# Entry
Amino acid sequence: MKRTLVIGYGNRDREDDGAGWHLLNLFARHLNLPSPELPGDSSVSPDGSVRLTYLFQLLPEMAEDIAEYNRVFFLDAHNSEKLDELVFEQIFPKHTQSAFTHHLAAEELLALTQTLGRKAPEAWIVSVRGHSFRFQRELTDQTAQSVQLALKKMVEAFAEPSSSFSDAAKEFAYVHYQAADHLFTDAQKPVVSEHACRLIVNGEAWITFICSPIDLEALALGFLWNENVISELSEVLDMKLSDDRAQLSINLKSQTHKPVSFHRTSTGVTPDSARNDTPSASDFKISATQIMELYRLFTKAQTMHDKVGGFHSAALSDGASMRIVVEDLGRHNCVDKLAGQFLLQNRPFTPHLIALSGRISSEMVAKSLALSVEFIVSRTSPTSLAIETAKQLGITLIGYLRGGQFDIYSHAERVIRDA
# Structure
């Protein structure tokens, strides 16, 4: 484990100003360590790999101290409307003023470390927005919720990488450039792995997926289902993935012919090439508030994107919760993986909504017919053909869900207007 220093700072007696202290104490409990109570207090793990420290504010004389660690987390509060409720991001040495409430800024402290001729550690800011700063120790409800989410992310950051994450990303050294200071900093972080896996069907090579090297069986099954090759998992005789995961062989119970072209080779397909071009007659409806809550749960579940960036995600919902969530470097791969996981789990629920992290193409709309969903939701834009396809097929298409708002491009009658 990297030798890690966690610094929580702020005034714990000024309501949300003490968010860093509250988070530090929750994290101490998670590690079964004593909670630092007073400014200057610290607690250290038995093996010396983790040190937790509470301060009123960062001080210049700490520059040399933090150089003794491989990684530092700065836990703070901020009061800027321009920042998210929770900021959890890597930071670098920089001579700058900050929107965070306690100065010296963490970036400035890292820059001072370099000025002293020491190497600045890998550093992360974990800052929760404060909404009230009265003289009391309890947090407001909104800030307390953000602190709980920050704790979850802290726990994930300290956990040993899961096999799926270690497969889906690789560590690379790089040089970070900060234009304001003309400063070059050596750093290291994980980067999305790009993997090639060839699909063999009944002994014939069909396609090579460019994908993340995880959930490959689900990717292949979902692809075959979305291409109308299979309609049930029972049609698959067996599957075998090579040790290097470069080839996945699937044998079907019946003979089949390789399609002349695949839907996924273009950015869009017409309704005529979809699995079923019968417009949806479902009377399923959902409120605007619930749509936003489901997408919030979807975003929260995107663990690999939070750690690395560069991943697309997709999720399948029964209208009450997100039941299946997948991630991959390709947005089309994500939709295939959703279908594959749904088949592998023996269709355990009735799907009503697909959430996507990226652009909605007509292919996404056409493939949604295989899952019979009534809603497709994304934080970004749909294509014109996607909108036209959704209108024809009776699907409610929602884009630009962000900042407490979204746009409905088709069949708005399915969205219940909240009172």
